[in-house]
Design a protein that fits this description.
Number of helices: 4
Strand content: over 45%
Structural class: mainly beta
Shape: globular
CATH topology: Acetoacetate decarboxylase-like
Distance between the termini: 49 Å
């Protein structure tokens, strides 16, 4: 049995992350991945978390799907909703991180866990469940690659022109798993024009729901390559700072 990691009472640095994995329709993933990526297994990983950023708590929700780029397996990030405005625009401008403002409710009370995410007045994701026990974490350090895209279309809205052509950003993060708790609960996806996860990535079968405590060891953010600018053009217009397909920065 793995010991629970120690942190001072109330300190968010030791908070676990809610991680729910489910199976979806591969056709939805195919619509979302830009040319240059190849899809992995037809699954979606949803994470809800609270971490310290800029010296204060940041609540966040992430949605990502398995994808391979240039022979390396990883996860393509479709969006990261957070409740801290300062980190939204600088993250996208510097590294292409697909962040947007989002209201998030996430807590654990005893063995009960709840999460709810709201964007532009629409609740698009809910989870409610209870801890049933623990699982053994992965032994040793492991590295996960997450793919972001960074680009800037040309000033003046010139068709198929860029001031900065689309690049793939590789976020290679090395972790050590410290503690895992299994949850008996169900993820619910609700229809939202601003976060169309239920539309593009419907939940066909929930595979797991866990509270996971990681110890980050290293994080390297680098440019991994350039995508074909013309082939990428249909993926350039997105909803806000996410990578959900949009029109003029809003829903289709």
């Amino acid at each position: 049995m793995t010991e629970t990691p120690m942190s001072r009472p109330g300190e968010i640095a030791g908070w676990p992350k809610l991680v729910v994995k489910y199976r979806t329709d591969p056709a939805g993933i195919a619509q979302l991945l830009p040319p240059g990526f190849s899809a992995g297994e037809p699954t979606v990983t949803v994470g809800v978390y609270c971490v310290p950023v800029h010296g204060e708590p940041e609540y966040g929700v992430s949605v990502k799907v398995p994808a391979t780029f240039d022979g390396t397996d990883g996860f393509y990030s479709l969006g990261m909703g957070i409740d801290q405005e300062a980190a939204v625009f600088i993250s996208g401008e510097l590294n292409g991180q697909p962040k947007f403002l989002c209201d998030i409710r996430f807590y654990r009370l005893g063995d009960h866990v709840e999460a709810r995410t709201i964007h532009q007045g629409y609740t698009f994701l809910e989870f409610e469940g209870d801890v049933t026990g623990t699982s053994e974490p992965i032994v040793g350090d492991f590295t996960e690659h997450e793919w972001w895209t960074k680009y800037s279309r040309a000033v003046g809205s010139v068709e198929k022109e860029y001031d900065f052509p689309p690049h793939v950003v590789d976020v290679a993060t090395t972790f050590e798993q410290r503690h895992i708790e299994e949850l008996d609960g169900q993820l619910r996806l609700l229809d939202s024009p601003w976060d169309p996860i239920a539309r593009y990535l419907p939940l066909e079968e929930q595979l797991s729901a866990q509270l996971v405590t990681h110890q980050p060891k290293a994080r390297d953010i680098t440019k991994a390559g350039i995508l074909d600018p013309d082939a990428f053009w249909p993926h350039a217009d997105v909803i806000g700072g996410s990578r959900w397909p949009g029109t003029g920065g809003g829903p289709k």
